[in-house]
Automatic annotation (TrEMBL):
Domain Response regulatory: 9-125
Top-level taxon: Bacteria
CDD domains: LuxR_C_like, REC_NarL-like
Keywords: DNA-binding, Phosphoprotein, Transcription, Transcription regulation
Protein name: Response regulator
Pfam family, one: GerE
Family annotation (PROSITE patterns): HTH_LUXR_2, RESPONSE_REGULATORY
Length: 222
């Protein structure tokens, strides 16, 4: 479990009241969650963000009158630091890859259990992203079959240490910092230090960017 020592404000945009009620119930069990704003429409969410930007937004893709990708695009254009986790029934590679390339921090199926949702929320709040094996695979597949949607521009191959390459491979496999620490018998803080160094060396914005960097430079074939 990740320690979060500050009050967190979370917003939820989904047009199904029963689903919002269930997610709200889960969020209320998290000790660091101080406030929850939920709505089924974009306009109230936008007004809320302009008044008080939440620390995290849980976003559905299928919305009346618009779609989640357009919502994410508008919000990230106005609030580039907003952390977004998509919760969606759509699981095709193209949806996952496009949303990650837009700048969302994670992408989860709507049938995710409460423990998995909690892990994703905490990792996004602490590290800025949460990459699952499914996300990693979708991003890799998107590199093999690229789409024209705002691809991330990453620099040429940089020199990585053997340990950095090892951690990069594990990140691309969807392993959390805690998993990596256990596998390599090192501390979580050490893992985070290596991850930060990888972000600096590759100029990747988050773990999703690291996956794209690895795919584009053939590092996962080694």
């Amino acid at each position: 479990m990740v320690a979060i020592d500050y009050p967190v404000q979370i917003a939820l945009l989904d047009d199904h009241p029963l689903f919002r009620q269930g997610v709200r119930y889960i969020l209320q069990t998290l000790p660091y969650v101080a406030g929850i704003f939920d709505t089924g429409e974009f306009a109230p969410l936008l007004a809320h963000c302009r008044q008080r930007l939440p620390d995290l937004l849980l976003l559905d893709l299928q919305l009346p009158g618009t779609d989640g990708s357009e919502v994410a695009r508008q919000l990230l254009s106005e609030f580039p630091d907003l952390k977004i986790i998509v919760l969606s029934m759509f699981s095709a590679d193209k949806f996952i890859a496009q949303m990650l390339k837009l700048g969302v921090r994670s992408y989860l199926p709507k049938d995710v259990d409460d423990a998995q949702l909690r892990v994703a929320i905490e990792e996004v709040l602490v590290t800025g992203s949460h990459v699952t094996p499914r996300i990693a695979q979708a991003l890799l597949n998107s590199e093999q079959h690229p789409t024209p949607l705002r691809p991330l521009v990453l620099p040429r191959l940089v020199q990585l240490t053997p340990r950095e390459e090892e951690i990069l491979h594990l990140i691309c496999g969807g392993h959390t910092a805690a998993d990596i620490a256990d596998r390599l018998f090192i501390s979580r803080r050490t893992v985070e230090g290596h991850r930060q160094k990888l972000l600096e060396k590759t100029s990747a914005p988050n773990s999703a960017g690291l996956v794209l960097y690895a795919a584009r430079h053939g590092l996962l074939d080694n």
